[in-house]
Specification:
It contains 3 helices and no strands. The longest helix has 23 residues.
Length: about 80
């Protein structure tokens, strides 16, 4: 999960800057490839990593058997 946060932070860092010190002067550096293509892609990839990390089951490596499941949820013999 920390990797995803790092990728998102890197994307926002790459997006920053490019402004002009004088508000009356336009700086075309704001539209360069890094700010328009790379940084938003990194942010989206970071969010994808976060979603994957949230949905990942860390206990998936231990396989559960039918006996373990039946011990956890015993069959009710008194149902109609």
């Amino acid at each position: 999960m920390l990797i995803g946060l790092g990728v998102i932070a890197l994307g926002f860092i790459l997006m920053s800057g490019g402004g002009s010190d004088d508000p009356n002067v336009f700086n075309p550096e704001i539209y360069n490839w890094r700010r328009i293509r790379l940084a938003p892609a990194l942010v989206l990839i970071g969010f994808g990593i976060e979603v994957y990390a949230i949905l990942l089951n860390p206990d998936a490596s231990s396989s559960t058997t039918q006996d373990e499941v039946s011990e956890t949820f015993p069959k009710d013999k008194h149902t109609k």
